[in-house]
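1st attempt posting a full record on here, be nice pls
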Amino acid sequence: MTPHFTPLDLVVLGAYFLATLLIGFWVSRHSRSVEGHTTAERNLPGWLTGLSILGTYVSSISFLALPGKAFASNWNPFVFSLSLPVATWIAVRWFLPFYRREAHVSAYAHLEERFGPWARIYAGVCYLLTQLARMGAVMYLMALPMNVLLGWDIRGIIIVTGVTVTLYTFVGGIVAVIWTDAIQTVVLMLGAVLCAALMIFKLPEGPSQVFAIAAQHDKFSLGSFGASLAEPTFWVVLVYGVVINLQNFGIDQNYVQRYLTARSDAEARKSVWLGGLLYVPLSAVFFFIGTALFSYYATHAGELPAVYADPARSDSVFPYFIVTVLPSGITGLLVAAIFAAAMSTVSSSLNSSATILLNDYFRRYWRPQASDAACMRMLRVTTIAWGFLGTLVALAMTHARSALDTWWMLAGIL
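the predicted structure (as tokens):
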């Protein structure tokens, strides 16, 4: 089968990009002050912030990598998701009350109070560099399958995505980020569920065949329950998930900033529980898609090019299925969902990075008494600057031997 992308798919994708920009301009009236641009005047409902937290958690890496992992191996990485409720409970019990009580917009202000200015500067620099690497990796890994499968110029995809995200973040601030995150998350969830439903009915013997083939190849395994620490057993992945998720909820500016946007402590708790718990079934859908992909191509021999048999290419199997098998219109929706996952991550990184640059450096060392207008100019300039730099990193990753390995290396170092 050959890839197809019809005019209807292009209309769906174009409408998605246009709607994203319009939302940014629509909510810009709430972002004309520093407080509005960085914390939405601390007046958003929990359900909206919760969807935004979920959107921050899910990136194009998740959208493509989770089905790829399940296709190539089994559900062992899903144990990482099962650790999330534990981390969410700890976040609601301790992290959330602390940050709302302290009321610092920066997640790293407390480090200065505890250890001195050097700690705040050090953590802030590492965070800012991590966000540049993250934006670059996410945009590149989103553009790569679109380039391979549809023949679109990879640099053009990166530039269009970077400009679009930077523009609506620049105009609408955290309010635009949260609203677009929420809508993008809904698009992503609907697309994933719809795709999973369509897939199971495309097998010759119906949905039961998915489970029969998967069971034969032990595709639903969560990994070994042994005591070894030298392999990704159930327990190793679970503990790793708790540690990484505590890092996200405890010290990541993307999450901390969202704690402060809720209109009350109760709404903030609701948002964290909603974002944390929804990820578990959503990631299960992604893993199920990977398992269903394995069953589908097991019954449709010859339809999947041999190159995708390489585990290193498993991330591209889901996009290949989208553009070769799904009906017109649905293909556009799923491609939009891939863009949604990437744009949600990048917009969060842009706004949080601008907030750190304003509070931890500009206000702290350069102009402590700066007016609200001067601070707004700073926020907008740094949003454009970080959007530009993030796009450059994504373009640079087109020359990397493995963008995912590069991201893991940079993330580990920083």
